[in-house]
């Protein structure tokens, strides 16, 4: 403890930035290929397009691109911990965060660790970060959520892929969102979505995963109430985990029904609509998804000063947490909405064949020298694999 701040100082998200991929596949191209009526994608699941990583992009390059602007704005002197949440890990032992630490030139006097519990991991990271800052308010924690969502070609999950990273700087007196106690927690052992170590693509029981998610909404909301949480009427808006944006609407209607409220269509739209803008064009970004929802909500809403927002983080398997955060007055001065819009607009559209070629790519496992084609226009790239080592570089 070095600066004498009281343990009661608010703690939360001081800055937030996201990055996504070089390429994008419009759902119209997927629908044309597989003969699906486009309304199923645009309306049924609420998705317009999905981000697709270039051959030289992965969770590390996206994470470093998301976090670099935070370090540029605030410096790294106070960052002693990096928590990297992902469920599309690139190594069974080494944390992806260590590569990011190196690419960003963070101080060697620091700790870096990777966390996993499906899409819930970044919320665990955020809560653990708050604990660390509570212990020493002079420190900041860099929380990163980065994922590539990949299902089998020609499977029902294929339309719900995507990729993005969100980086958040967590500290005292945050400029964006004060994270509050209590949290409502829920864990249940279900096999709705999983990825064994020997597979690249996830396995999923689609309908089971939707009901497991809705069960978790109930369970975490019930616990939130029992822990003395806010009444539903307090919240100006909600950020749900969005495997596809329609899920946020399903989840919110379920919460309203469960808690004995009307499910008025306009009220549901007001509660979740703004949070779906980025996810609808990026697709599922697993751990990053709920915080992409927060980015969209903050970037696109003008009147959140001092107002509570509800967060529902769900990770298959399953763990969920409902918690609240109050938006800090003046938050709009600290947003990165122009950069966020650029990250989405700069993506190059792929045709179906181009997407399929990227989907089918994987590194040989022979320990040879395997450079990647230079495709990304982003600030960092995965240059290749040599002697079983991933080689990253700043561009
Ligand atoms: N016009 C408008 N709507 C249409 C339509 C049309 N022409 N055709 C179909 N629809 C609607 C359907 O009525 C349905 O809507 P409702 O759910 O509101 O009834 C919607 O489109 C989807 O149709 P289906 O259920 O028939 O679609 P599907 O069987 O192909 O599967 C899915 C959809 C289960 C989401 C599948 O994409 C999938 O398995 N995705 C991966 C798993 C997933 O995302 N699960 C979410 C919860 S788990 C989680 O959140 C963790 C995570 O990140 C994975």
UniProtKB/TrEMBL annotation:
Residues in Hydroxymethylglutaryl-coenzyme A synthase C-terminal domain copies: 183-256, 265-328
Active-site residues, as the UniProt record annotates them: 87 (proton donor/acceptor), 119 (acyl-thioester intermediate), 241 (proton donor/acceptor)
Keyword Ubl conjugation annotated: no
Protein name: Hydroxymethylglutaryl-CoA synthase
Hydroxymethylglutaryl-coenzyme A synthase N-terminal domain mapped to chain residues: 11-173
Keyword Amino-acid biosynthesis: no
Organism: Streptomyces fructofermentans
InterPro entries in alphabetical order: HMG_CoA_synt_C_dom, HMG_CoA_synth_N, HMG_CoA_synthase_prok, Thiolase-like
An MF annotation (GO) of this entry: hydroxymethylglutaryl-CoA synthase activity
């Amino acid at each position: 403890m070095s600066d004498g701040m009281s343990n009661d100082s608010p703690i939360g998200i001081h800055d937030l930035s996201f990055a996504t991929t070089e390429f994008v596949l419009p759902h119209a191209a997927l629908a044309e290929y597989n003969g699906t009526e486009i309304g199923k994608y645009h309306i049924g699941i609420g998705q317009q397009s999905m981000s697709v990583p270039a051959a030289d992009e992965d969770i590390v390059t996206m994470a470093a691109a998301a976090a670099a602007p935070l370090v540029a704005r605030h410096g790294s002197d106070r960052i002693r911990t990096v928590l990297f949440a992902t469920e599309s890990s690139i190594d069974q032992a080494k944390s992806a965060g260590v590569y990011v630490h190196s690419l960003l030139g963070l101080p060697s006097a620091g700790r870096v660790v990777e966390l996993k519990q499906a899409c819930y991991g970044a919320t665990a990271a955020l809560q653990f970060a708050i604990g660390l800052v509570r212990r020493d308010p002079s420190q900041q924690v860099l929380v990163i959520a980065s994922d590539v969502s990949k299902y089998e070609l020609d499977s029902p999950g294929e339309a719900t892929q995507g990729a993005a990273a969100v980086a958040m700087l967590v500290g005292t007196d945050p400029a964006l969102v004060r994270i509050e106690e209590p949290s409502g927690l829920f864990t249940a052992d279900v096999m709705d979505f999983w990825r064994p170590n020997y597979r690249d693509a996830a396995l999923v029981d689609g309908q089971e995963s939707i009901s497991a998610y809705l069960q978790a909404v109930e369970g975490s909301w019930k616990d939130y109430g029992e822990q003395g949480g806010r009444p539903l009427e307090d919240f100006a808006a909600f950020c749900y985990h969005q495997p596809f944006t329609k899920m946020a609407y399903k989840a919110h209607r379920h919460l309203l029904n469960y808690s004995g409220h009307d499910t008025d269509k306009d009220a549901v739209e007001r509660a979740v609509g703004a949070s779906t803008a980025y996810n609808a064009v990026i697709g599922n970004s697993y751990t990053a998804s709920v915080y992409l929802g927060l980015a969209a909500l903050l970037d696109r809403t003008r009147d959140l000063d001092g107002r509570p927002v509800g967060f529902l983080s769900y990770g298959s398997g399953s763990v969920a947490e409902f918690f609240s955060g109050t938006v800090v007055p003046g938050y709009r001065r600290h947003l990165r909405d122009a950069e966020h819009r650029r990250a989405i607009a700069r993506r190059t559209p792929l045709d179906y064949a181009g997407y399929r070629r990227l989907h089918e790519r994987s590194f040989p496992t022979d320990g040879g020298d395997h450079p990647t084609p230079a495709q990304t226009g982003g600030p960092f790239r995965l240059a290749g694999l040599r002697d079983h080592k991933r080689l990253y570089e700043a561009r």
